[in-house]
Amino acid sequence: MTMTFDKTHWALILGGSSGFGLATAQKLARHGMNVAVVHRDRKGAMGRIEPEFDAIRQCGVGFAAWNLDALSEEGRQTVLGGLSEKMGAGRVRLLMHSIAFGNLKPLAQPVCRGDAATRARARLAEQLGISPETLTRAIGAVFEGEAGAEALADLADIPAAAPEALLEDEDLARTVYSMGTSLATWTQDLLARGLFASDARVLGMTSEGNEVAWRGYAAVAAAKVALESISRAIAVECAPYGIRSNIVQAGVTDTPALRLIPGSAHMKARARLRNPFGRLTTPADVADVICLLCTDEARWVNGTIIRVDGGERIAG
User: Fold this and answer.
1) I need a surface site. Which of 192, 209, 263, 269 has the fewest CB within 10 A?
2) Which residue pairs from 270-273 have beta carbons closer than 8 angstroms and sit at least 24 positions apart in sequence?
3) Bridge partner residues of 11 (DSSP)
4) DSSP-assigned states of every residue in 36-73
5) Average pLDDT along the chain
6) Which domain holds residue 26?
7) Are residues 293 and 201 in contact, defined by beta-carbon separation less than 8 angstroms?
8) What is the pLDDT of residues 22-73, one digit of tens each?
9) Which backbone phi and psi does 36 adopt, to 5 degrees?
10) How many domains does the chain have?
11) Is 199 found in the same domain as 130?
């Protein structure tokens, strides 16, 4: 099936300058959908971002981008007002929430318990006649620097968070809103302004961290669970307006957001070992599925979590 979207339809992507959001913007544009991107990046990053946006423009579709705070009232109203002027009413086919603005502080200080990896390194170092420190550096260098070294993940050190940086109430509240409940705010405002198409999609991004406890991920995990709950509510309450709401759970993907997580190299290594296809999920993999969800044929998919991970989760 060759996908060609209605030339009057728009995708509004929150967090569209990298990762899943950017890949989706480019994919949809290649299939004829107009694209509006909201992002927040420093001026120095625009040298990387503008060529990516140019690729969208070259598809011959309508394109708009706002570099501002999508989480502020002023920023949101600026985008909605500008989008309304550019496209008119009833044109947003997709609202994609891909905001990656979360706090990665741990709940408690780590406790050194002489874990199995440390003991294993010490015994191996003794057998080799070198110091544990020398062995640890060597393992780290190979693990971080060479493809195919995933099996060393359990012996390589995981970077520790700064000892004084613990999660606080404000960190938690801000993250839950940014990466979770702000989906409701945007959906309500688009609906109130009459900007959604008669058959529209609302999509959010979650991860395996919604069920598995990763150190330093408590705030983001809480936000993702909130996002999933909000999506289900939208699926039920906004269905009479023609809106379908779903969540996409991607496998471990090498994105700028993932690289901020302490120990992300270990997460990627274990994902490669676990995945039936022996590789990480890519933003393009996820964009392909989101594009499919925007087709007419996907209209009956509503209120669910769709895993796009090549079978990674079930192979663990």
Assistant:
1) 192
2) 270/150, 270/153, 271/312, 272/150, 273/150, 273/151, 273/153
3) 35, 94
4) EEEE---GGGHHHHHHHHHHHHTTTS-EEEEES-TTSH
5) 90
6) 10-105+168-315
7) yes
8) 999 999 999 999 999 999 999 999 999 999 999 999 999 999 999 999 999 9
9) -120, 130
10) 2
11) no
Q: Quick one: 180 and 257 in the same domain?
A: yes
Q: State the helix-helix crossing angle for 264-274 and 132-145, rounded to 10 degrees.
A: 60
Query: At residue 201, what are phi and psi to the nearest 5 degrees?
Result: -125, 135
Q: Within this chain, do residues 127 and 273 fall inside the same structural domain, yes or no? A: no
Specify the amino acid at residue 50. E
Q: Are residues 137 and 93 in the same domain?
A: no
CA distances, 71 to each of 20, 97, 174, 177, 307 (Å): 19, 11, 10, 8, 27
CA–CA gap between residue 252 and residue 307 (Å, rounded): 11
Predicted TM-score of the model (pTM): 0.88
Is 175 a member of any domain?
yes
Query: Vertex 80, ends 66 and 197: CA angle to 5°?
Result: 115
* Interval 160-188: pLDDT, tens: 555 568 989 999 999 999 999 999 999 99
